[in-house]
Amino acid sequence: MKNLSFPGLPRVLIVDDEEGVREGLRSMLQREGLQVETAGTAEEGVRRVEARSFDIIFLDLNLPGADGLSMLGKLRRGSPPADIVILTGYGTVANTVESMRKGACDVIEKPFSSDRILAVTRRVLETRQLKNELTWLQDRVRELTSTELVGLSPAIRDVQMRIDQVSHAPDTTVLVTGQSGTGKELVARCVHERSSRHHGPFVAVNCAALTEPLLEAELFGYEPGAFTGAAKDGKDGLFAVAAGGTLFLDEIGEMEPTLQAKLLRVLQERTFRRVGGVQDIPADVRIIASTNRDLRDMVHSGSFREDLFYRLNVMTVTVPALAERAADIPLLSHFFLDQIGKQMGKALAGFTEEAMETLCEYTWPGNVRELRNAIEYACIVCSTGMIDEVHLPKFTGGSPDGSDRIDRSAVVLEGNDRSIRALESKLVAAVLEETQWNISRAAAILGINRTTLYNKIRLYELGKRPSRAKVIV
Fold first, then answer.
1. Alpha carbon distance 313, 295 (integer Å)
2. Which of 353, 350, 348, 334 is nearest to 123 (CA)?
3. For position 443, which CATH number holds?
4. Which of 288, 305, 320 is the last residue in one of the domains?
5. Rounded Cα distance, 372 and 103, in Å
6. Residue after which a domain boundary falls, among 79, 94, 129
7. How far apart (Å, rounded) are the C-alpha atoms in residues 439 and 360?
8. Strand (E) positions, 305-383?
9. Structure pTM?
10. What is the pLDDT of residues 340-398, one digit of tens each?
11. Does 246 have pLDDT greater than 90?
12. How far apart are CA 216 and CA 272, in angstroms?
């Protein structure tokens, strides 16, 4: 139990009229690092529950005075209520059904083994831990807005710190770099919303989506008759539309050199001219540019102006790939689930442990955008309840370059057991060790699905996988 991440030590109450049972359980569970209290009657147990909260209550059904079953509801007070494990020397189907109906999570018949008690205790505590994480994630998601950068990992905290720093300089040019799908436009919006320019407009344009003449007219506007097909009254450009706010130039690396020179002049002089015009117009905007390319390499190759690069590169914010902030996947997943579920009018409760493991183990080459698409797909195919592994898109488990291939010499049988069972057990254990218990990759290497692999882990008693990283607040 010692590797469970609880706020303080898990607290256990044992309610049993047999002193030997109480003290035996107390000694066993205290050795596992748990806080344990005992009570000899149901009434004493209720008094202890009223005084403090417990995570697990081991409750004997046959107690002097009021029996355990009639007191079960009173013992499940608190928020969240304790999980009740029934202890009984007279196990019947009727008792078990009635106990479960009244809220017990398990029934253990006397005499019981220490292995049975410890297995139930671990399962209950792990389930409570997952529920605690889910509650925290859902509470955190409700606090988030559409223009907040979601995440708590060190990599994303660094980005948030940069955003806060540059937000206090409302005229400083910002360059946002990172792979496609990492959320560069969201970073730009966060800078805008947290600055004194947030009352002004946020205007975005994709520099790769328009030809040079169209992009120039779109940015600077044009005078009447400036070119064939121009509107007779002329048109304001995005520099004018974004006045007092922020102009976001997405994919700045795709801008043609001629237009780069004109943008440089705007950054230097803080003025611009409409196409076909002769009058300088003040450019009261903050420029935020983004790119998924290495502008330094482009400068060296001559495809990007060096002077423009240094004008843009006043404050650089590099958005990490999702693989570099994998600890944020649970929070991001719940954020997207809440957002998309509301749009679709579906009340989806969350993710099963298997589904979340799959999400956390995948490498996400398409970054946050791909994760959001996967959650949207799951929301479509899942009609209600929890999103399970079967609702997720079919991800590839192994690496195409063969890096997941294990050394065949690693599977060595010891002793006289040369059975297929022994060989399979060793092979599964070796693949799990080699892949660091990445269930998706291990299943792909073995040529089986994840459910089958989980069954083999239980069958061969290979132990529990190393705990996945928890959200650190």
1. 10
2. 353
3. 1.10.10
4. 320
5. 37
6. 129
7. 11
8. 315-318, 348-351
9. 0.60
10. 988 888 888 888 888 888 888 888 999 999 999 999 999 999 887 888 888 888 763 43
11. yes
12. 11
